[in-house]
Amino acid sequence: MTKKLFFIVLTISFYFSCKNHSNKSVVNNNIIETEKKETDLNLTDKKQNKNIRKKVKVLSVKETLISSDYLTTVMTVETDDNKRLVFLDMHDFEKLVDKEITIEYQLISDPRRLLLCFDCSSYSKEIKLYDVTAFYSKIEYKELQLKKYIEDEGITINSTFEMVDKNDKIEIFNTNDDDMILDSLKMKSSFHKYGITTKIYPELVNRAELEKLIK
User: Fold this and answer.
1) Which of 133, 123, 144 is nearest to 203 (CA)?
2) DSSP string spanning 42-56?
3) pTM value?
4) What is the chain's mean pLDDT, rounded?
5) Burial grade of 115 (CB within 10 A; 0-12, 13-18, 19 or more)
6) 3 state SS of 138
7) Are 145 and 164 in contact (CB under 8 A)?
8) Contact (CB, 8 A) for 205 and 104
9) Is there a contact between 196 and 121 (Cβ–Cβ < 8 Å)?
């Protein structure tokens, strides 16, 4: 009887031991996955200002009107992970269309960051960049207060917002939102949360190498 009771207790103990071990493994796997996702999110930042070499397919090379008075030849390529990159001033590179080539480039951050929305914690609209070469970084949200607004009467996107954070640090921003400054008194009166993004654009490094392909 005693032996039988001992066997039952031992079996129950073993069951709970295995269950706890299984749960611990699942938790550890979740931690690993979370860390991996965080690393993936920061991947773009780590690659900025470093040379990136990739095989791409050239989709098009054609003249494009970039602004009201700037006509240039634009080369659009697609990477093996389906990302499109655009490079300017690619005259005479039409021979490369539909070909696979290797490009080397850097991701450059525009120092002028953009205010996307006022008094917000999310943003779902299309982000206008007015730059065919650029894409945008992950949106961040910061509490800021307007200190000074300097209007550019000719071009709205050149107007500047001098903002201060709660540590008295002053930062300069632009915006592509024509309505951003509608309530300047409210923006100046207190801190509000703003959506912010950074423009990032690729800069071709191995142009000389590509020029050999078209000779």
Assistant:
1) 133
2) THHHHHBTS-EEEEE
3) 0.68
4) 80
5) buried
6) coil
7) yes
8) yes
9) no
